[in-house]
Automatic annotation (TrEMBL):
Name assigned to this protein: Pseudouridine synthase
Matching PANTHER family: PSEUDOURIDINE SYNTHASE, PSEUDOURIDINE SYNTHASE FAMILY PROTEIN-RELATED
Residues covered by the Pseudouridine synthase RsuA/RluA-like domain: 66-193
Highest taxon above the source species: Bacteria
Amino acid sequence: MAGSRTRLDRFLSQQLGISRKATRPLLAAGRVWLDGEPVSDRQRVVTPFSRVNVDGRLLQQRERRYLMLNKPAGVVSATRDDRHPTVMDLLDEPAADLHLPGRLDYHTTGLLLLTNDGDWSRRLSDPREGVSKRYRVWLEKPLTQADVQMFADGIHFPYENITTRPAQLQITAECEALVVLCEGRYHQIKRMFGRCGNRVVGLERLAIGGLWLDPQLARGESRALTAQEVQAVFEPSE
């Protein structure tokens, strides 16, 4: 996962195969450029996405990548799997540097994100951010207002001895609902309905924060996020 940072002199030493002491004359002579400007401070931070040149020679240039994918059922949310196709197999572009900031179960469909930006991923999973996830759920049995209240109160999982954070459950049809969570425990929605005595027969993720699945994307299709969409994941869903 991309996310490591290093001092400029250490980066130059590793890339050029010289000692850190030997990087000082390069910096003092203005021969090192960082993100489009000459630098002399050896303690400047180089990120995985910094552009670094020495004497016009490009040492690093890496663009941030953010994709949304409409995950179909029967595909694993992983970069590699020995038994099943993965979401990486669905992409029409190089995926070696991409990872998944959050996953969906094998049978679950809908919005899945891929990126090479580790800082963005960590922020997405940080509980302090409170990033919500919105799902459409189909159930085996009719839903009740008692279910709505259980979700709002939080549901206890005895095995881990934890209680889920309050979640929104909106009944949209007899056996269909919208669910909004601000956490993502293992099989959480299926387990929550299991505690309500019901079984999930279909599950689709519709949104993460304020970012909604593009309705123009067919199952298995993906596209790059816009700059606005990259930030929208940290905004409330509507």
